[in-house]
Design brief:
Blueprint: H1 4-11, H2 49-55, E1 79-81, E2 87-90, E3 106-109, H3 111-137, E4 143-149, E5 154-160, E6 166-173, E7 179-188, E8 194-202, E9 210-216, E10 223-234, E11 239-244, E12 252-255, E13 272-279, E14 293-294, E15 302-310, H4 313-318, H5 324-341, H6 356-364, H7 377-387
Antiparallel strand pairs: 1-2, 2-3, 4-15, 5-12, 6-11, 6-13, 7-10, 7-15, 8-9, 8-11, 13-14
């Protein structure tokens, strides 16, 4: 498991594109940096900017609205024309008039660069997926906990009298940078049908990370709500999932727990800690942690289905130089295949010289050749994938447990 957006951002400059040496041809405005010194163009002679531009859509037919300096509701991703044919894209939403020269909100935009960026990043994630798949087969990626329900079913007779505080659970995933906890389902058990707003706060972050408006129709029974987007909790951080008791109609019904200890102590604590709390707060922003009252023998009618797994995002980015070869070759294979098939059926001096059969042969090789002698791009790619080997020495005690040695990499 890993965060795709973070990987796209973190790996974007690992391998770059060489700028078109034809000043009259298409020019890139991004992806020109290479931290590794590798360039995608060097993987195959056909990967020139002119060749790639020849199979891209006809961007000359694209028309964008003129920039309106009085418009205050531009959305992220909107593209405008400055009146001279120069394009800009909105990168941050803001309720206000922001001029095009404000780089906090606008950046120059080029259709071909964006087209190539999307394909480059898509192939980058495919390479990471392939590596992840190989490691899954070798049992080096782990799912620690799958859809575990935290509390037992509520007791109809155990009513939690309504107060005026913000109430819920504080959840802290294991102190491990590679652990990620996901809440896929959330349940309510209260004695009156109503809509309840549940919020998620993170310690140190003022505004709520998430707000869910849940329409409860369970008539005192447990009602589960599947979250279209799971709530993600990062290892080592502290989170508060809660609602405002003062806005509640009726009362919550408690889960079946030991009323002697006044504390929820469950075996799932191997991967995270959870306890109920209450705090005097207006529910609009994160409260002071020292103001909460915890270790309470109630769950306030809330329950969760959680999964805990290993997140390799930081590990990949920390060791990203080990992935430069597979990324370079995967991008090359994908774009060469697109050159061969030319989905947009564009024909010009560059594309008309493309030998599709030859290109596909250089990508895939000869299926009849002896294993190990086939040096197609695909064969080189598979070899590079298998070359990424590591011992998980103390990098992470949960997901990458200590063995005898440090990170170990073989050569291609």
């Amino acid at each position: 498991m890993y965060n795709v957006k973070e990987l796209k951002d973190g790996l974007k400059d690992l391998v770059g594109w060489r700028q078109n040496d034809n000043p009259n041809g298409a020019q890139l405005i991004d992806m020109l940096t290479s931290e590794s010194g590798l360039y995608f163009n060097d993987e195959h002679p056909m990967l020139t900017i002119d060749n790639l531009y020849s199979i891209a859509p006809d961007f000359d037919t694209y028309v964008y609205p003129a920039f309106d300096s009085q418009k205050s509701d531009y959305a992220v991703g909107d593209v405008v024309d400055d009146g001279s044919g120069n394009l800009y894209t909105r990168i941050v939403a803001h309720n206000g008039n922001q001029p095009l020269n404000n780089t906090t909100y606008w950046l120059p935009f080029d259709n071909f660069t964006e087209w190539l960026l999307q394909r480059t990043q898509s192939a980058t994630i495919q390479a990471i997926n392939d590596w992840y798949g190989k490691k899954s087969k070798l049992s080096t990626v782990r799912n620690l906990l799958s859809r575990q329900t935290i509390f037992d079913t509520g007791d109809f007779g155990d009513i939690q009298p309504k107060g005026t505080d913000v109430v819920g659970q504080v959840i802290k995933p294991r102190d491990s940078r590679s652990v990620i906890m996901k809440i896929s389902d959330l349940s309510l058990q209260i004695d009156t049908n109503q809509t309840v707003e549940v919020k998620v706060f993170q310690m140190g972050v003022k505004d709520p990370l998430r707000a869910e408006s849940l329409t409860y129709t369970g008539n005192g029974s447990v009602q589960w709500f599947n979250l279209s987007t799971p709530i993600e909790l990062q290892g080592g951080e502290m989170y508060y999932i809660c609602y405002n008791e003062e806005n509640l109609s009726g009362n919550a019904i408690n889960a079946v727990v030991s009323r002697d200890t006044k504390y929820f102590d469950y075996p799932v604590g191997k991967y995270f800690a959870v306890k109920s709390f209450k705090v005097d707060s207006d529910f609009s922003e994160m409260f002071n942690d020292e103001d909460i009252v915890s270790n309470l023998g109630t769950n306030y009618g809330l329950n969760y289905k959680v999964s805990v797994s290993c997140d390799y995002t930081d590990f990949i980015l920390d060791q990203k130089e080990q992935f430069q070869t597979i990324i370079s070759k995967r991008v090359a294979m994908n774009l060469l295949r697109e050159l061969a098939f030319n989905a947009n059926s564009n024909v010009n001096r560059s594309s008309s010289n493309v030998d599709s059969t030859r290109i596909l042969y250089e990508i895939d090789g000869d299926s009849q050749s002896t294993e190990g002698n086939n040096r197609s791009l695909k064969d080189q790619y598979e070899t590079a994938l298998m070359a990424i080997q590591f011992d998980q020495t103390g990098i992470d005690k949960v997901c990458l447990p200590c063995r005898k040695r440090g990170v170990k990499y073989s050569t291609i």
